[in-house]
Amino acid sequence: MDRYAKQRLFELLARGAAALVVAVMVLVIGVTLFRGGRVLLTDPAVAITPPGSRYQLEADGGFLHAVVGSLFIVGPATVVSMVLAVSTAIYLQSDYSSERFSDAVNMFLNVLWATPPIVYGVFVLTIIIAIGARTSMFFGIIAIAIFQYPIMTRYTDEALRSAPDAVKEASYGLGSTRLETALITVRAALPGVIAGIIMGFARGIGDAATVLFTAGRSNTMPGGPFDGSTTLPVLIFDNAMSFNDELRAQAYAASFLLIVAVLGLIVVSKVLSGRYARFAPGGRNS
Amino acid sequence: MEGATESAESDDNRGRLSQRLRRERLSSYWFTGAGYFAIALFALIVLTLIYQSLPLLSEYSLVQVLTSSNWDPARNEFGFLPAIVGTIYVTILTMLIGTPIAILTAIYIAEYAEGRTKRLVSSFIDVLAAIPSVIFGLVALIVVVPFVGNYLAPVFGSSGTGTGIFTVSLVMGIIVTPFMISLSVESLEALPDELRESSLGVGATKWETIRLVLLRAAGPGIFSAILLGFGRVFGATIVPAMLIGGQTRLPDSLFSTGQTLPTLIVNDFGELMSVPITQSALIFVGLMLVVVVWIFNFSAMLVRRRLQRRWQY
After folding, report:
1. Residue contact B262–A31, C-beta within 8 A
2. Within this chain, do residues B107 and B210 fall inside the same structural domain, yes or no?
3. Are B170 and B246 contained in the same domain?
4. Where is the domain boundary, B59, B87, B105?
5. What ipTM was reported for this prediction?
6. Burial, B200: exposed, middle or buried (Cβ in 10 Å; 0-12, 13-18, 19+)?
7. Looking at the complex, does the CB of residue A134 fall below 8 Å from at least one CB of chain B?
């Protein structure tokens, strides 16, 4: 094979690989929207009906408990995680410590980021057992918050890093304190920070391994923060291999909701980061 | 009269200044605390896992647990070998499937695609990265499982329902790509254009430029992307739990059902939580996962540094 044939071959391979990846994504989204959409169209009530008493056996009722569980677990977890993540990112980017210490913190954040989510689940569960509590929404919130924390910190840190140094210098030059400078830097990097928080929320709402053992996996509507609860991914996981056709169908309806939510969040994050770009010095005017 | 207002004003200013400084001091404690939180959280997780694994390790030796292939918690037999072998099979096979696809796609995005196509493909990749893995598992159950069970496995002379190590690897191979693609694209795009120009200028074809110059120069970044992808597959939980079949025995072929370390936790934790020694055994699995992922991360960092020094351009 001469050099040019080789070149053509590999260009073809590269294009093929990209086409394959895109095709797989279209397939996954397509199958989910089609199968789940069909279930939701024939019976839209499954998404807003609480489960009946024999849900797991006879699929009576719908999966409102999982929708509610997802929102009430991932929402608060995102708030907790956001506060911590933005603070840590400010610490990493502003002048609160030596560069060496920031590097060390960064290394631990990378390790946390790569830690398998199931480990967070196991960790929180051992705490639950140690203090003699029961699995509940509250511990689900803690587990998801721990899971989101390194993700959001990394996004926020990157956003703050990309804010121009001139912002920081100008702020210090006017005699601002570190706190005031940090707040102005956050404002300058707001599009990235918000995108990071939304991505953290999207990752949190899609994760099953962390809440599998910590949120309680119940088949009833949660009554309070210390009640057991389930989330959409866990519901999909449980129903996917059920022998009951109706339950399997509900798994598809649930993934329809989940995928629409995640795609919607990505769009929202793009729109918001466009809108807040006006805070960025020298940024686009919109 | 005038002097009085002036001093009142400066008192006011001083008051505001001290208030600002007080805020600065308080917030600095908070931010420093937030910095230490990352380290404290990591330490807390590792120490908790170690402490909770001690009951198992005090009764069985480490070698015994890692090399025995009997897994029967009801009879107090804890051999992790089947799960370890399953994890290694899945990880290696996934990387064999995923890495070429990821690198070729990254090359396409960074070097071939242009304009709108490029933006479109890379935002597709971003979306792919955000799709929850449980959805991949669900779609795989109706697409990949029958395909492997009815068509692929019989070709290789195995029979089965289609769940098993190969199915998991195929699906994980796709799940892990977006992550490796975006890291590789980043390191390819960071390369200066002079590199491409000078290589093409001495008469290399585009492919030769990519293979001999660009992949080398971006090598450290791509290599650490692959290592981090390794860590991802290694700790993957939900997809293997849905597709591997969940049998704790040594797999005899790539199409046989098996178990990985994370699925061991998923399959056994619920029921056996109340038995202290089993609980300890499963927490030990968590510890193994953390330690291995930690090693992967650390070596990714070291390899990156070393390659950066060796493959300088």
Report:
1. no
2. yes
3. yes
4. B59
5. 0.89
6. middle
7. no
Q: What is the pLDDT of residues B95-104, one digit of tens each?
A: 999 999 999 9
Of A12 and A272, the one with more pLDDT: A12
Domain spans of chain A?
A: 44-277
For residue B287, the model assigns a pLDDT of 92
Task: Encode pLDDT of A178-206 as tens digits.
Answer: 889 999 889 888 888 888 999 899 999 99
Task: Tell whether B40 lies on the interface with A, counting CB pairs under 8 A.
Answer: no
Using the Cβ of B183 and the Cβ atoms of chain A, whether some distance falls under 8 Å is answered with no
CB-side neighbour CA atoms (13 Å) of B236: 33
Same domain for B4 and B86, yes or no, is no
Are A190 and A269 in contact, with CB atoms under 8 Å apart?
no
Backbone angles phi, psi at A201, to 5 degrees: -60, -45
CATH architecture for segment(s) A44-277: Orthogonal Bundle (1.10)
Instruction: Name the residue facing A3 among B33, B141, B208 (closest C-beta).
Output: B208
Among A247, A234, A253, A248, which residue's Cα sits nearest to residue A66?
A234
The lowest-confidence range among A169-173, B182-186, B244-248 is B244-248
Which residues make Cβ contacts (< 8 Å) with residue B303, sequence separation at least 6? B220, B223, B224, B227
* pLDDT given for residue A252 in this prediction: 92
Would you call A118 and B38 a contact, using CB atoms and an 8 Å cutoff?
no
What is the model's pTM?
Answer: 0.90
B289 vs A contacts (CB less than 8 Å): 115-116, 118-119
Quick one: what percent of chain B has pLDDT higher than 70? 95
- Residues 6+ away with beta carbon under 8 Å from B71: B77, B78, B79, B80, B82, B83, B248, B259, B264
